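Quick start: read one record
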Amino acid sequence: MNQYEMWDKHNFVKVRNLVLSRLVMFNARKGGEPARLTVHEWREAITGTWIDPNLIERINDPMEEYLIDNLKLAYQVEKGSRKLVPVLFPKDTLDPISKLLEERINCNVAEDNIFLFLNTGLSIDHASGYHCLKTIVYSCPNLQQPHLLFADKFRHRVSKSFAQLDLPAENREMFYRHMGHSEAINKNVYQCPLAVNEITRVGHFLLNTVDA
């Protein structure tokens, strides 16, 4: 979008939908979670409220340094509980979000709306993550299976991909917390590819050892 173009409600909604969809997909979250982010939580992410500067100083791995520089972290309170849900902001969302905040005054939004991805029309509620993502997905041409890009399907795909990685226990626990489910759920629901390994690797061993 041209930076000199005058914004109206339609521009606002389009960019809001794009950015919110990006966060839902990037974080492999349920659509309603990033949609409930507040402006306060966003500002905490931008100012690095949750990041201990003393720990940053100890980082000497180039990849970790890159990630610290290019990702922002917010925590939001999960609906109906006090549990904190992490949301990562990739760098390409930062400027669009700042623009959304800047253009609120021109786009018929309520001044007292606390949400980052708010509804227009003077509503005090947040946008629907599901409907924003659905709008973006179905606006993309030539998608053969657009339904696979909805939040729940995508979460399933990401979890299955993760299940195939050989990672330390602490890395897995971090992933489970991010996804919002326990290791047991991840094993029972998402680790279907491991069944193939059970047959091809363990089964091969047993055939050559027990049935030899």
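Residues 150-212 form one domain.
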